[in-house]
């Protein structure tokens, strides 16, 4: 786990993609820290080194066989722990991390949930969050129709689901699908969302 504390009454738990805690995840921690949050990057892979982007297939296989979405039980106990220490606990996830965060949005200690391109959320549409959620999807997902999923998600209370015109990975400046314009839009939306739920 990587922790950055500034003595805040607010915390964010960052759930990484299949690759682990890489530079992108560390920059997300910096972003939330600059917003006034203590940040906790959980190492769900339980590996010392992260996978590189060129090891995508190996990283995905590792996630499926060694981790899985049921890792949310591990994160749930950590949310509970932080819930007794902080006034607000936000869960942020990117890709598989977003799907895990979505599954945790019913946790009573979770004050808010943010997810970037959580494509597997489509397998957990029965979740009805108990906290405000901001979900940003990439328009160009090959495996499913994003608009159909977003349509269903928007029917849920306190869920904001938005589709941005890029591809999966648009906010990760180290990824091949990075788009600086979409990244700026995404992080501006996150800042607004954080301000709203803090009120």
TrEMBL record:
A Pfam family reported for this protein in Swiss-Prot or TrEMBL: DLH
Keyword Ribosomal protein: no
Record domain Dienelactone hydrolase: where: 5-187
Keywords: Hydrolase
Sequence intervals crossing the membrane: none
PANTHER family xref list: ALPHA_BETA-HYDROLASES SUPERFAMILY PROTEIN, CARBOXYMETHYLENEBUTENOLIDASE-RELATED
Protein name as catalogued: Dienelactone hydrolase family protein
Organism this protein belongs to: Acetobacterium tundrae
Organism lineage: Bacteria, Bacillati, Bacillota, Clostridia, Eubacteriales
């Amino acid at each position: 786990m990587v922790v950055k504390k500034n003595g805040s009454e607010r915390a964010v738990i960052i759930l990484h993609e299949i690759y682990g805690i890489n530079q992108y995840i560390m920059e997300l921690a910096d972003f939330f820290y600059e917003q006034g949050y203590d940040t906790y990057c959980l190492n769900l892979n339980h590996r010392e080194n992260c996978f590189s982007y060129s090891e995508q297939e190996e990283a995905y296989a590792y996630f499926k066989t060694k981790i899985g979405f049921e890792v949310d039980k591990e994160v749930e106990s950590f949310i509970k722990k932080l819930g007794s220490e902080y006034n607000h606990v936000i869960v942020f996830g990117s890709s598989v991390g977003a799907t895990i965060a979505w599954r945790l949005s019913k946790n009573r200690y979770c004050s808010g949930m943010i997810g970037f391109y959580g494509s597997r959320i489509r397998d957990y549409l029965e979740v009805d969050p108990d906290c405000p959620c901001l979900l940003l999807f990439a328009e160009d997902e090959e495996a499913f129709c994003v608009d159909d999923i977003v349509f269903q998600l928007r029917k849920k209370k306190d869920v904001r689901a938005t589709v941005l015109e890029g591809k999966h990975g648009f906010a990760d400046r180290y990824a091949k699908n990075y788009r600086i314009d979409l990244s700026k839009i995404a992080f501006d939306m996150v800042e607004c969302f954080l301000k709203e739920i803090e009120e």
